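Fold this complex.
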Amino acid sequence: MRKKGANGQESRARLLIVAANEFAKSGYHQTKISTIVSRAGLTQPSFYLYFESKEAVFKELVEKFRSELKILLEGSRLESGIDEEHVTGRLQSVLTGLFAFLGKDSDLTQIGFFIGDDAVIVKSEMVAMIEQNLKAEQRDGYFDGDLDMHIVAECLVGVIERLTSQQLLTGKRTPEDLARHVVSLFMHGISIYPAKRAT
Amino acid sequence: MRKKGANGQESRARLLIVAANEFAKSGYHQTKISTIVSRAGLTQPSFYLYFESKEAVFKELVEKFRSELKILLEGSRLESGIDEEHVTGRLQSVLTGLFAFLGKDSDLTQIGFFIGDDAVIVKSEMVAMIEQNLKAEQRDGYFDGDLDMHIVAECLVGVIERLTSQQLLTGKRTPEDLARHVVSLFMHGISIYPAKRAT
Amino acid sequence: MRKKGANGQESRARLLIVAANEFAKSGYHQTKISTIVSRAGLTQPSFYLYFESKEAVFKELVEKFRSELKILLEGSRLESGIDEEHVTGRLQSVLTGLFAFLGKDSDLTQIGFFIGDDAVIVKSEMVAMIEQNLKAEQRDGYFDGDLDMHIVAECLVGVIERLTSQQLLTGKRTPEDLARHVVSLFMHGISIYPAKRAT
Amino acid sequence: MRKKGANGQESRARLLIVAANEFAKSGYHQTKISTIVSRAGLTQPSFYLYFESKEAVFKELVEKFRSELKILLEGSRLESGIDEEHVTGRLQSVLTGLFAFLGKDSDLTQIGFFIGDDAVIVKSEMVAMIEQNLKAEQRDGYFDGDLDMHIVAECLVGVIERLTSQQLLTGKRTPEDLARHVVSLFMHGISIYPAKRAT
DNA sequence: TATGAATGAGCCTTCATTCAT
DNA sequence: TATGAATGAAGGCTCATTCAT
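Structure:
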């Protein structure tokens, strides 16, 4: 009879899952290898059979998050839209995709988006990307030329950040729902009065 | 014979300042008592002359932030406005005050707003408060009745959070500047087209 | 189906060679089984197919050295010489043989002569043997009767030890060369003045 | 009542002594901090109160040996002698001093002369120094011009090495005694016949 | 003959905290 | 008010060795 998980890949996978969960729950430094291996039904040396070090697993997880996110974002670059409908629709779909991605694996999202020094970088890159797109649309006349798109991009990321942690990862809202609210808010704000734009 | 600066209150104050800075820089767990006392020109036992434990200093700092914030927010409750001008103006002034507060002591803000488990609570409370105010204004007809003000409040806090850490604490923007951008974004969004509200 | 080289004796031999090299290079404790098997193209359990333990391989190597050395030394016992020419010649040839042996397999020499607790014993035995021979020649009148042959023997071994590690194993000198120098030094010293022996 | 050794310098000194003894007895890697502190009547963290790391103590000990040895050797440079008596006497006194130094603190000698990678260097430097001196005397005509003084120096160090570990550190012989034997051996060898030098 | 998988035992190092002065 | 000295409790990592196949 095989020992439980006498299969390397399976053990590794289990360790990775548990590790992600622990890192997400407690942060990098508070996570103990002893807890990880114990939850994975193994002993400490086994951990080092599959990973170089504590830092290495963490990096692997961060990298996984980053690369998946990169693929998602690159696949959803906003080309210049044609009319307002399109712009809105595109934003809606991109955000839905993003929230769907962020909600898919809550441990990984926690790690890549909120824990560790790289999270700051990830979000900065996201801001930069969004800013580029917004500026393009702004040049095309869809958005008020006076807006500081860097600030807008920062705000959007702040919103995504908070909604992800408070609404998405807690299961209170769906990606579509969140995307709809965000689009609505960012497109038209909450006032019932039209903006007094510089004319 | 007293040592230079061998004044209890002064030593305590110095420890508190250094501790705040270390917590802000490195987070709770990465901050070492040895570093704090060393920077404060004292030795480890002295630390325990003024504070019960590492956790105690941290809590004291968090509490300081929370109480100051509480006073600020209570002093700036939005009473029902009278017209759009007022609503906008009030929001603008409240946000300016909030950013001013958050920018006043960056170490304390870091601690109370971003580090430690209480930060989550602080922000949730802020969300709740904002939500109340928004709902009141909504009832008064200033905002679209269909809007989910809980989500809007969450978004506002997310925006405040991010702008604080990325623009305010880095010295890139002033409180007024940030408040203006936020008000503009939240009131009217970025689209040049008016919202198609349900009629 | 056998794997390439899946011949027990061959694997064992490979392990032995690599082990000798690692022990020689890094010493007993710093040598890791994992390194040995990896260099031998095998896995850790295979090691235990051929050797009881880490200590066992080491002992086997030490024993190999000791037995070979023993054979060499026993075959070269100095019988009482007849005249000075003979004594000198005999010493020269014995030393040449010894250096040749020590230079033959540098890893084994390193292990048996310099590493591990047995090396001390090996050299002590060598001292004892040399001492016997020197004393015999001394009784026969070839050497000054006042000399403490135990010390002389110790010196000779010290010289052999150092020349082996610094000149022989580094390839700087040949066995013959070294033997000649040692004989010259031990027979007549370096002074140009004759010794003032007690008469 | 003071705790045993509630004096920093004393604790440090005790640790250093015990550490030296352990390193000398078991070598670097086999020496355990736990053993050192336990023998010094302390606990593990205390060790790190006085030393950076295990490696650091070791280095400190090695350095102590090296610097003391350096001072000794520099103070006893052989100036060109005047006649054979002088040369012999000088050699005798230098060797006596050296053996006295090597016998003074056997643990330190073990560490600096036999353990650790630096021991090899120490001895190489010693060879170089001796070689210089011998060559000078050789140029002055005291020694046979045909001798390879590098080899002679190597032999001398080999002899010192062995006599130190086997006779001096074991308490069997005194520095003077050993020096006398070495001088006699190196000056005139053991043969009763005079050397047939090239004429 | 060979290996994939796993582990018991152990070692170095760190840090918040305390005791005696 | 202040500190020199010390420690309990942990945590990351390594290595020789074994089990089941």
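The mean pLDDT of chain D is 91.
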